[in-house]
Amino acid sequence: MSRRRRSRNRRGYMLAGLIVLAAGALLFLMGRPPICDCGTVELWHGAIDSGNSQHLSDWYSLSHIIHGFLFYGAAWALMRRQPVGMRLAAAVAVESLWEILENSPIIIDRYRTATIALGYSGDSILNSMSDVGMMALGFAFAARAPVWVTIAVGIGFELLALWVIRDNLTLNVLMLAWPVEAVKAWQSAL
User: Fold this and answer.
1) What is the rounded distance in angstroms from the CA atom of residue 31 to the CA atom of residue 51?
2) What is the CA radius of gyration of the chain?
3) 2 DSSP assignment
4) Has this prediction a pTM greater than 0.90?
5) Are the beta carbons of 42 and 120 closer than 8 angstroms?
6) Does 94 have pLDDT greater than 80?
């Protein structure tokens, strides 16, 4: 890697870090709680209850890892000439924008009306920043693993979440964009 490319790569990683800090600050200004209102910080919150999206990781963390797989693929296709650090910065920007949008009243209300997340009140800042980190882990995995392994892991994560919580990235997108009452009823039966 040339010296100029190494410098751009480093700038990309620094830019990614700055984007994360800016997203965290914006979420704070939006009034999001820094941590769970329960006052604790859990590494893993596996229960499907009001603690979802409040701690470091939960079943929806798998979806954010898959975001990383998808964003790596998109960045590779659209930014192939850019170093990985710059591609990661673009992926972090997209994920951070989603975290900000996801915690806006319009999306919180949409989750409450169109999905099984009746009591959803948005993410804590800790969880949002962890979600961006999970995406970055997925991005890094996809950057190093063979494509077929990344696809297999992504499908495995989708099936695992579907089996355990009757929800996953695919159903989340479907239910936000075009709610299906039969899917909502099936998910509610858990």
Assistant:
1) 18
2) 17
3) -
4) yes
5) no
6) yes
- Write out the H or E segment, with its range, that includes residue 181: helix 181-188
Question: Phi/psi class of residue 180: alpha, beta or left (left: φ > 0; alpha: ψ in -120 to 50)?
Answer: beta
**Identity of the amino acid at 111:** Y
Interior CA angle at 167 toward 162 and 168, to 5°?
A: 80
Q: Is the dihedral of CA 98, 100, 101, 104 positive or negative?
A: positive
Separation of alpha carbons 108 and 124, rounded Å: 13
DSSP tag of 96: H
The C-alpha angle with vertex 115 and arms to 45 and 183, in degrees rounded to 5, equals: 105
> pLDDT value at position 118?
67
What's the pLDDT at 50? Answer: 85
Residue 120 CB neighbours (<10 A): 18
